TrEMBL record:
The gene is coaX. Keywords: ATP-binding, Coenzyme A biosynthesis, Cytoplasm, Kinase, Nucleotide-binding, Potassium, Transferase. This is Type III pantothenate kinase. Its main location: cytoplasm. The keyword Transferase applies. It comes from Massilia timonae CCUG 45783.
Length: 247
């Protein structure tokens, strides 16, 4: 049993995958806030985990907590961006500086939409919008504040604008301050994704992350919402490596 872990800035997402299972076909999966990590670990402990693949962008302190909570004696790999993995070449100027979650998400997106120019947008605390070419090159991408962070920055740095909780897609031109703010931050998020799709000539756009259900309805380009694209990418990377080992 393989444990897949995506430790982000706000939540830790995880899944348990049987060897050879289809992408996203997990025995169990979940997501917890950092403070609730013990709850997830309690479920890992009784699952018969033999290996773990962990993507962590939340810093060394959380990495230490995860390491301490993994089942004893298992094989653990800390996923890192590299020059090439799972058939995806890393076009970042310094490949090791690419966020490991972005590299994993690109691997997952390419596994779901092979041989296509595609955009993968992961919408969480930050929103990343990355381009992958049909021949398997991670071209590069964009990083912008996430939806909630954009809304919070307006409330924190202006005297009279309220804190808005992102929700249903409002009219393009809001007739009240809350809707005007929400329309603005949604338009910024959707506009970045749409610009990336147009600029890359993408035939496929995959949207993931906690804010994806809010942002996706605002998009004016064809897209597919995929839950937990980083975990999908970790699973795809594992399957690719196992296939190489059998050759």
């Amino acid at each position: 049993m393989m444990l897949l872990v995506d430790a982000g800035n706000t939540r830790v997402k995880w899944a348990l995958a049987d060897a050879g299972s289809a992408l996203g076909a997990w025995r169990l999966h979940g997501a917890v806030l950092h403070a609730q990590l013990d709850e997830a670990a309690a479920r890992w402990a009784s699952a018969g985990v033999t290996r773990a693949l962990v993507s962590n962008v939340a810093g060394p302190q959380l990495a230490g907590r995860i390491a301490a909570l993994l089942p004893a004696g298992i094989e653990v790999e800390w996923f890192a961006s590299s020059v090439e993995r799972a058939g995806l070449r890393n076009g970042y100027r310094d490949p090791g500086r690419l966020g490991c979650d972005r590299f994993a998400a690109a691997i997952g997106a390419r596994a779901l939409a092979p041989r296509q120019n595609l955009i993968v947008a992961t919408c969480g605390t930050a929103t990343t919008v990355d381009a992958v070419s049909a021949d398997g090159l991670f071209v590069g991408g964009m990083i912008l504040p996430g939806l909630a962070l954009m809304a919070s920055s307006l409330a924190s740095n202006t005297a009279q604008l309220p804190q808005v909780v992102p929700g249903a897609v409002p009219a393009l031109f809001g007739d009240n301050t809350n809707d005007a703010i929400l329309s603005g931050v949604l338009s910024a998020q959707a506009g970045a994704i749409e610009r990336a799709v147009a600029g890359h000539g993408a035939s496929s756009c995959i949207v993931s992350g906690g804010a994806a259900p809010t942002i996706a309805p605002a998009l004016k380009v064809a897209h597919r919402v995929v839950d937990n694209i980083v975990l999908v990418g970790l699973q795809a990377a594992t399957a690719w490596r196992e296939g190489e080992a059998r050759c």
